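Board notes (copied after class):
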Amino acid sequence: MAENKMTHAELEKRMTVAPFHKWLGLKLLEIDENGIKVGVTWREEFVVNPTGRYTHGGILATVIDIAADYALAAKLGRPIPTVDLRIDYHRAAMPGDLVVEARPVKIGGSFSTAEAYVYDGDGKLLASGRGVYYSAPPK
């Protein structure tokens, strides 16, 4: 796999510049040659069902998309647009911070692929996904 073009500090700054990403409470926990690990601070607003208290699936899909994109950004030096995204939900995400592990699968000249996995505080897999991103060099 290609060498990282962004440092931990550069990637975290880039990942948290968007107001929506700040609201999500994203924090870059780790970056290495294989991928990244992102922390997500749980918020009451994530709840979709007040009785069941589980997190909306859209939040899980969002953090999968962001982490997968930024795993590629670490390699390419910039985030890139999502072309396609597939999410699988494995169990309900109850209140508590999340950890998302993401890694590039393939970096291509026009399109790149990455995958991500969302875990709860006990390390249980909540959701996983794979995205395709438009990686052609900017003109």
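Comment from the instructor: The longest strand covers residues 125-134. Residues 8-134 form a domain with the Thiol Ester Dehydrase; Chain A fold (CATH 3.10.129.10).
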